[in-house]
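Summary for the steering committee. One of the milestones for this cycle was to obtain a three-dimensional model of the protein with nicotinamide-adenine-dinucleotide bound, which we needed before selecting residues for the alanine scan. The sequence and ligand used are listed below.
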Amino acid sequence: MKDLFGYTGKNIIIDGAASGMGLATVRLLVELGANVWALDIKDVPVPVKKFILCDLSKKDSIDSVIEQLPDDIDRVFCCAGLPGAPFSVLDVMSVNFIGHRYLIETLLNRMKNAGAVAIISSLAGMEWMKNYQMVGKMLATSGFEEAVSWVQANEQRIKDAGGAYGFSKQCLCAYVALKAMEFLSKGVRINSLSPAPTQTPMMPYFEQEHGQENIKAYSVGGRYATPEEMAEPLLFLNSDMARFITGFDLKVDNGFVAGMIMQQLGALK
Ligand SMILES: NC(=O)c1ccc[n+]([C@@H]2O[C@H](COP(=O)([O-])OP(=O)(O)OC[C@H]3O[C@@H](n4cnc5c(N)ncnc54)[C@H](O)[C@@H]3O)[C@@H](O)[C@H]2O)c1
């Protein structure tokens, strides 16, 4: 059968590769024959082409990683993330948005052959359009340091607007929409995937901060997804099969948003 995914022999960069959805994605990429450069602050428990220690909250760390990556890159997967508490507003914004934006934009010129970027956002970022006045200010910053300064100056505003986690994910969803045309002119697609609650090592943080009942309220019938249930559609988004898809946020939610809009979730709870 034709290699529909098209990952065989491709040079893939993936962050957040050590755990949860990122790790599930790495396992599948390796199975599909990709050359995987895996980035994380923790060791990646799967044999890959190269594991590189990378702290996305630090520009110097990203710069040193970039020097070790190949000149010709086919796909970038951004899977790393921090939940809200106990992490600071600046750490959450730096890992979830600022570091990712810096990594993607620095690698853009190395994606010469129908490249693509897939970012894990969240249903928590779904309402980015309603908050675009503030999100647009974050997006208008240029580079790592200016973005950090903006966050430091607006920490209270971010807290008042629902917290760093949701704001960082709103920024990612908006970023995908903002950059779609610019990236397309360079032959590169950019999309995000917004998971419903998923059983990964991040889940206890969410349950601790918001209460299990409130997290379950974002699922259909109380079932959390598995990491593989996110990794598989993420692979699709960044594959040759999705070559006409860009600027899109794919909600992988077992129908949660549809059920919410149509007020049909109650029957399943
Ligand atoms: N689990 C959920 O319910 C859920 C729901 C929606 C979105 N998400 C998002 O999915 C993505 C994957 O998260 P997960 O649930 O698999 O959690 P996870 O904690 O298993 O994975 C997150 C990964 O990010 C890495 N990371 C953390 N800080 C880093 C840093 N400074 N530099 C580099 N890497 C760093 C961690 O080491 C870890 O490997 C995240 O972006 C998360 O926000 C998760």
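Key point for the committee: The chain has a mean pLDDT of 97.
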